[in-house]
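Student: I would love a firmer grasp of how sequence relates to backbone shape in proteins. I am handing you a single protein, as its sequence and its fold in token form. I am told such tokens are a discrete way to write the fold. I hope you can help me see how the letters and the tokens relate. Take your time, and here it is.
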Amino acid sequence: MDKETVIGGAIVYMVESSLGTSPLIIPQGPVLPWHNLVLAGEAWDILFKELNVLARQFRSAVLRVEPAVSVDMMTKFFPTAKRAPIDLVPAPSLLITINRPDKDILADMKPKGRYNIKQAAKHGVETVWEISTVFLEESYKLFNLTCLRHRFTGESFDFFVNLVEHLRTKNMLRIYLTRYRGVVTSTAIIILYGQTATYLYGGSLPFFPQTMSSYDLHWTAMKEARLAGCRFYDFYGIAPENQPFHPYAKFTNFKKKFGGHPTIHAGAYDIIFYQQLSALWLKQMDAMAVN
């Protein structure tokens, strides 16, 4: 194996619990060369050795993984893993294929989506992106306001500072702002990784609804992600079918106006490091999931 070539990896989180143990969590990972299971297995063996070191260091009883693969692939690759009681990332998500002409993307949108994009242009809405302190501060104001308006629990400003700091040098992040007559009306933080641009965080001003600024923002972000080499635009979480009271139902209709198709992966699975300690932790997590 070429030691100079990156073939896989994972961002590992540790979550403190009242039991004094920190489970290891890998949302949307590990990232492995799934097209080549032999190579993926070699990469996982190396990664798992390091995860075992972390498990001993932080007394972690459980490793929770959630790679973007099918159930069949998940059970084949991690045969001893058990289905977790709760998932780490939203499911389903809405995926739009963007490596094609504008007319084809627009044709797959709902009529109201195409109309609203035209309305934004008619009102002179401007969408720009930049990775700067000013843009981050403006974006966070709208994000926080939107969380309060819809009664969501948002991330802290320090979280976004760290996110930008780690991804800006790798050209993996863009902060979009939309302006109408000088007023910032919508925002989005887009993550670019591999062939996918993901709409991770966003917000909007509850004024000037006639401008349809959020439509211009995402249409612009899609086209620019395509120029950056992306094949897909991931709108991230949407409400499952026939769940009108799901927390994501409020913005699912907006996202679906852009077309695309829902995607569902295998979900989260648990790999056990220490059986007895993991039983206590999983029991606690099950109780939290029910409540």
Summary: The two ends are 47 Å apart (CA to CA). The CA atoms of residues 70 and 129 lie 34 Å apart.
